[in-house]
Write a structure and sequence with these properties.
Blueprint (H helix, E strand, L loop, with lengths): L1 E5 L6 H10 L7 E4 L10 H10 L3 E2 L3 H7 L1 H4 L4 H12 L3 H8 L4 E4 L2 E4 L23 H7 L4 E4 L5 E5 L3 E3 L8 E2 L6 E5 L12 E7 L4 E7 L3 H10 L4 H9 L2
Parallel strand pairs: 1-2, 2-3, 5-6, 6-10
Antiparallel strand pairs: 1-11, 4-5, 7-8, 7-10, 9-12, 11-12
Length: about 250
């Protein structure tokens, strides 16, 4: 099976549609998402509508939880927090119900899906763990995993963590990377709608479960259209400025 795995769409319909168009010729068997469909961007309802329409199964993100829980909202940065009320006003009750029913984790074809950090954290950043740290050691994260591969988002950064103490960030567009079946891997698929590494392209990852390989995809989209929509909305202007800079 070939899976397209998306994360952190963040209400950016232009980026989402570009990603969907990119995968049309790539023989994708199933689409999955890792949460944070909403917030920051100007089109939360449209993005969620497309996710539901296409039957994209997935998990909850910290922004979904923040939208539905005041306690979780308190953990957001000030810009994300200020965007929540505008996001909530654009969503229908049935859409809020859909978000409320998203699970924290999901296991599909032997792979773990979780927004933040394995085995089951929505808000913890995988990037805050280090291979050699006694307190935030990645070895403990790997030990807690029951699956040999996990897919995460949350950091908005593309990367691959392997059990042999190697972290890869130089994952190139269209390059198929064969994974070692004897090791445990954690793949951070990057962000569709809010990249944070200076590259404004939308990101997602294709996973081939039969060949146990990953293929990062970088997709251009009309960023200025999204930015102008943010400026005309009740969202903070910073949300648009970050799209322009890619940070």
């Amino acid at each position: 099976m070939r899976y397209a795995i998306l994360s952190d769409i963040h209400a950016n319909i232009e980026a989402l549609e570009a990603v969907l168009e990119d995968m049309r010729s790539l023989r994708i068997d199933r689409l999955l998402h890792l949460g944070d469909i909403i917030n920051y961007g100007p089109d939360p309802a449209h993005c969620l509508e497309r996710v539901i329409e296409l039957g994209i199964d997935g998990v909850t993100g910290n922004h979904e939880r923040a939208l539905l829980s005041r306690a979780s909202a308190g953990n957001l940065n000030i810009t994300a927090y200020d965007s929540l009320s505008a996001t909530r006003e654009m969503l229908a009750e049935e859409q809020l119900d859909h978000l409320a029913n998203l699970p924290v984790t999901r296991v599909v074809d032997g792979m773990l899906l979780v927004h933040g950090c394995p085995p089951d954290s929505v808000s913890e950043y995988i990037s805050h763990h280090d291979y050699r740290s006694r307190i935030y050691g990645l070895d403990e994260v790997f030990m807690k995993m029951e699956q040999s591969i996990a897919f995460v988002g949350h950091t908005h950064l593309l990367g691959l963590y392997t059990q042999d103490e190697e972290f890869k960030t130089d994952l190139h567009y269209g390059e198929r990377l064969k994974l070692d079946q004897d090791l445990i891997h954690i793949v951070n698929v990057g962000s569709v709608g809010q990249p944070r590494d200076g590259n404004t392209h939308a990101r997602y990852v294709i996973y081939d479960s039969a060949g146990m390989s990953i293929e990062p995809r970088y997709v251009s989209y009309p960023v200025t259209i999204t930015v102008e929509k943010i400026y005309r909305s009740e969202m903070p202007d910073l949300n648009g400025e970050r799209l322009i800079s890619g940070y």
